[in-house]
Amino acid sequence: VGYKSKMSQFVDTILENVKPLAYALFNIVAVTGIVAVNKQVFREYEFHFPITLVMIHVFITYCGLLTANLLGLFEAKKDMPVSPRVFLAASFVFYNCASLVNLNVNTVGFYQISKILVTPMVMILNLALFGEGTSPEIKGAVSIMVIGVTVATVSDVDVTLFGFIIGMTTVAGAAQQQIFIGRMQKQLQATVLSLLLPILHNLFSYSRRINCYWVTLPLF
After folding, report:
1. Helix (H, G, I), strand (E, B), or coil: what is residue 156?
2. What pTM was estimated for this model as a whole?
């Protein structure tokens, strides 16, 4: 009986962790695939229009969120105030534009390295803006990671000063987006998806006012 009970607990533990592991694996594959395809578009097809590419990504994301919402997979935050919507929409677009410009002007290796630096940037901004620190253990782990990133960046001969500046701009953009979306989640007691859908809805509602020149502007 004791053996069967332990085996049953073991199976239950595995089943509880299958879904999170499957989600994590899907996320890794999807993110890696998106980066590879975007770089291919920039390099092989010489499509140097990051803002246009952002609009395509945002539209597909919006369609996916809308479908998931209609299927009842999550509930959109309908009573979200206007000012947070505008701020988060601007933050979302800025980060994604900077990210694709970063991928356009830098190698995939340096692009991935710059994404790793988002974690220490979040820690720095949280401390500077809100006085929220982290434990010594986390600081030690992040310090080792930063040292590794520094060594990898110095040894990457393809990184230019301009590319480095663009990469650090992307890091700052990603960090501020994570911080403010996280705080908005706590304030409104909502999930990321329930916040993102109304933000994108507002973005497309006002997109007719955007000059097409800026959307199709070639960058670097």
Report:
1. coil
2. 0.73
